[in-house]
Amino acid sequence: MSKRDELIAKYAADLKDKCGVTPDMDLLTKVTIGCGPSIYNADSSTVAGSDQKELDTVKNNFLIKKLGLKDSADLDKAIDAVMEQYGRSNKSKYRAVVYYLLAKHFKKEAIYK
Q1: Are 9 and 92 in contact (CB under 8 A)?
Q2: Domain count across the chain
Q3: InterPro entries, from UniProt (predicted)?
Q4: How confident is the model at residue 21 (pLDDT cuts 50, 70, 90)?
Q5: Is the distance from CB of 32 to CB of 94 less than 8 angstroms?
């Protein structure tokens, strides 16, 4: 099993166990690939849910640039909802899982087809 496959399995387990979501493995794989090499770096592979600068990066680089959404309060609300769903006390919020949940939230799965 490749390192990426191991990470995807770990992300799927997080979605099931921590978020209560049965993952669409095809979409999760594509979101993970879309994260590029950041998934292999301990710092960039996770999202610090309490760091506003980090949350702004998720909003600007993923929601606005990747998903093509317009900047609005809805984006911040969605990020907040995902952080809540993932569990605020959970220190390791994987970037691929956060992006997966946000893509699902905004029904933007087609971007990864």
Answers
A1: no
A2: 1
A3: DUF2853, Jann4075-like_sf
A4: very high
A5: no
Range of the domain at 91: 3-112
pLDDT digits (tens, 9 = 90+) for 35-90: 999 999 999 999 999 999 999 999 999 999 999 999 999 999 999 999 999 999 88
pLDDT at 113 over 90: no
Domain with residue 23: its CATH number is 1.10.238.120
101: left (phi over 0), alpha (psi -120 to 50) or beta: alpha
Is the pLDDT reported for residue 108 higher than 90? Answer: yes
Name the token pair of 7. 């990470």
The closest alpha carbon to 2, from 27, 31, 32, belongs to 32
39 touches 45 (CB < 8 A): yes
pTM: 0.96
Strand residue runs (E) in the chain: 46-47, 93-94
Give the end-to-end CA distance of the chain in Å, rounded to a whole number. 24
Residues 6+ apart with CB under 8 A from 38: 44, 45, 95
